[in-house]
Structures are given as C-alpha cells and as structure tokens.
Amino acid sequence: MPVDLWRIAHAYGIILAVDTVLITGGAGFLGYHLAHHFAHKGVRPALLDIAPYEESEYPDGTLFFKGDVRNRNEVRAALERRVRAGSFTRARCPCGSAPTSSA
Prior knowledge:
The chain is α/β, with parallel strands linked by helices. It has helices at residues 5-11, 29-40, 72-83, and strands at 20-24, 44-49, 63-66, 88-89. Strands 3-2-1-4 form a 4-stranded parallel beta sheet, with helices on both faces.
C-alpha cells in the first residue's frame, strides 16, 4: 500500500508557502522521504535536526539547518532565515507516532 506523504504532511501540520518547507527532524526516516517528495512536487525542502545529515542523499537545493526543535532560539533562528525567503514550518507532532494510511 503506497504511503500518502501529502496526507502525512498535513497530519503533522506542515504548512507550505511560496516555494520552501522547513521540516523538523529532517535527518530521520520521515524527514528524508518528505524532503524527496516535496522536491519532486517543486517545493524546496529545508531541514532542521540535531542529527547529522548525509547531504549527498538529499535532493539538490535542499537547505540544512543544525538545531534542536526543543530549543526555541534554534528553531526561531531557522525560521527567521526561512521566513525572509517566504516559507513556514511545522510544529512537532503531539501524537507521538506517524499516522497510517487508510487507503
């Protein structure tokens, strides 16, 4: 059963604006796949994570920010850099687990 990444993005509160989306936890499994999905849709991914990235595995044009979503100043700094370019972010999912596809 294929995963509906747009549905997952919506469930996690990702808000798209202009041409860029900032994904917290971008170095993880979901962040990796969301980055590829959004890039395929023409939306530039910007990733925020404390974990290291293997930048060569991500789409060309991906932006990488080192930071901890639990640290307001680090998130604010990444947002300020992206807001100037016309983007938004998502809040951390309060549910604790990824939603499943009902398709």
